[in-house]
DNA sequence: CTGTTAGCGCGTTCAA
DNA sequence: TTGAACGCGCTAACAG
């Protein structure tokens, strides 16, 4: 199977190579390989054998030239770390068989100029659709409506209500976190979150408030907002625990903050989860699985978001309405040892 | 600028649309837009105005059909988390202006079948080259030599010496770690690493040994290999510290292990870095910057790896030899508070 | 059943 | 200086 030459030596084989080897015209070869019915069985077999022998791979770009579709999607992101975009990419790939559609991934790095360049590049390559992934859940400026392909905004919604946006439901996430703590018997719940300039921080905070209201509880101390770091999680939790020694649970705005909270609790000689339960957001594996104990967290279900985005794009290509407005993806509670004692 | 319709309404404009609006032939329009000299200045201006007005974007796939190049690279990975592949992708993008070349990212998820599907998909889209990114530094099976485009293996080398592989120099990384600790005055150095089935673990261990030899030192206790988790870092460090209370430094096989080591040291009432210095590998930001104190680490310079890979691919397209064998990328020491006291 | 013709969007000859 | 004609690789119409 493997040739002896280096990569790049072997010339790309075309349909006409196959046709010549099989002794038929290119049209017949095309029909044979595409499973059209109007081909003699023997001829089809000859063509298929020839294609196999030459390891022929049809040029999808040439096909796309005719069909008006390239089987290609652009994923335009500014998520430097890939934390959000990778699950979304995988969800998009899953929405179809592997290889049926390929994904261009471009990182704009929060730079509008660079984003425009990438957008041009993607359109010039005639992507069938575009998925725009932000690095935070705050609205971002729309790409505009004069784009000739369907566009779906994921994670960060578009600021234009005419666009379709798919985002995690952070309010529900906050509510679910509190409901879980209450179900575990916690009554003295505190809240430490990240940068208050982020919608994610505020939305989760709103959900926390709703959850407390529903349980007839009041937050212990004030919600603490500063930044998304472990250090802040430690410092803020330390203050809260010292001022309110009766705290029996801390809702944290992210898994990193939660890790800081775990440290603060342990520094004070108290035990998680027996004395104080801790819950985070994001369900970011390296964070939640490395901690001691492992961290209960709210998973935003990003794969589902990516899968839904891809499905919407391709449904739109098939003539369906793309739809508009901001659609919320329900989160999922993942329980680990930081809220429920484990063996 | 923005149209009033929804996305997808506006038809894709072609060169002939531009030519018609400008009142010239497509050939002339093509020359005008591509900066060919044989066009009257006034004609060129008319064509450019028409292109602008219609916001014409040339179809690079049609161009590619002629040129034999698509300005497209395939990135075939099995790095589920995106830890390695994202920096490599960014390096590859940087190797050219943003948008000059676009990158298809495919995740094979350690599955050979899926990898073959993606490979076919990429070749059918006529990528100009292929970058294969593994999730560990152990050799992986070659894609073969009958691929019609240049292939570069990154992070995980190919098991075929005829292929070109670009990988981090883990032996050097281990050596540099020890050299740094020795330079900080440490003499009683222990070693905790990850899964001994990983070349990365063993290679770094070899480097640690070389560094110790060069300094005339012996490892305190045995190298501890198990897995890449924080938990293991804690447990192994605890054993070492209890059996060898004079340990003044721990070299850890990853940042996660190092975080576990930090916990173990603190649990014993000892201070990092004053009593015990700790150093990790990977320089993975959320890990190194969240810890207390921040973690000194060895950065494998993945962006440079990605950039180099992209450059090799495109140099090969321009006729240069692709080259072969395994090439090592030198790592970089990043000093933080876990080895040198900080204000 | 098969082959010929046409054309997808573009760049590059070559005549005019 | 411009435009008509050709071909990149492929598929869809038709004619044979």
Automatic annotation (TrEMBL), chains A, B:
Transmembrane segments: none annotated. Residues 13-67 form the HTH lacI-type domain. PROSITE patterns: HTH_LACI_1, HTH_LACI_2. It comes from the Bacteria. Keywords: DNA-binding, Transcription, Transcription regulation. This is LacI family transcriptional regulator. SMART domains: HTH_LACI. It holds the Pfam family Peripla_BP_3. GO terms for molecular function: DNA-binding transcription factor activity; transcription cis-regulatory region binding. InterPro entries: HTH_LacI, LacI/GalR-like_sensor, Lambda_DNA-bd_dom_sf, Peripla_BP_I. Gene3D superfamilies: 3.40.50.2300, lambda repressor-like DNA-binding domains. It comes from Kribbella rubisoli.
């Amino acid at each position: 199977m493997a040739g002896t030459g280096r990569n790049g030596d072997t010339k790309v084989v075309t349909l006409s190579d196959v046709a010549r080897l099989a002794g038929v015209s290119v049209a017949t070869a095309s029909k044979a390989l595409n499973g059209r019915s109007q081909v003699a069985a023997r001829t089809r077999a000859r063509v298929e054998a020839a294609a196999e022998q030459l390891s022929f791979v049809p040029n999808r770009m040439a096909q796309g030239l005719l069909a008006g579709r390239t089987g290609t999607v652009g994923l335009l992101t500014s998520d430097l770390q890939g934390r959000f975009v990778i699950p979304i990419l995988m969800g998009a790939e899953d929405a179809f068989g592997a290889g049926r559609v390929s994904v261009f991934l471009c990182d704009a790095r929060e730079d509008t100029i660079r984003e425009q360049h990438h957008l041009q590049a993607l359109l010039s390559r005639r992507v069938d659709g575009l998925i725009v992934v932000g690095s935070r859940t705050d609205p971002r400026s729309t790409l505009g409506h004069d784009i000739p392909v369907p566009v779906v905004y994921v994670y960060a919604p578009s600021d234009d209500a005419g666009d379709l946006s798919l985002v995690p439901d952070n309010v529900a996430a906050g509510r679910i976190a509190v409901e879980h703590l209450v179900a575990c018997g916690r009554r003295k719940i505190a809240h430490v979150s990240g940068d208050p300039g982020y919608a994610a921080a505020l939305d989760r905070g709103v959900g926390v408030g709703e959850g407390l209201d529903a349980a007839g509880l009041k937050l212990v101390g004030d919600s603490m907002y500063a930044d998304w770091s472990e250090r802040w999680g430690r410092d803020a939790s330390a203050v809260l625990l010292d001022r309110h020694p009766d705290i029996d649970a801390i809702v944290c705005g992210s898994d990193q903050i939660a890790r800081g909270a775990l440290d603060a609790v342990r520094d004070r000689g108290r035990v998680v989860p027996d004395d104080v339960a801790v819950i985070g957001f994001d369900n970011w594996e390296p964070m939640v699985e490395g901690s001691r104990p492992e961290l209960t967290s709210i998973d935003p279900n990003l794969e589902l978001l990516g899968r839904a985005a891809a499905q919407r794009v391709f449904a739109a290509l098939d003539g369906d309405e793309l739809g508009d407005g901001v659609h919320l993806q329900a989160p999922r509670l993942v329980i680990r040892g930081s809220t429920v004692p484990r063996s």
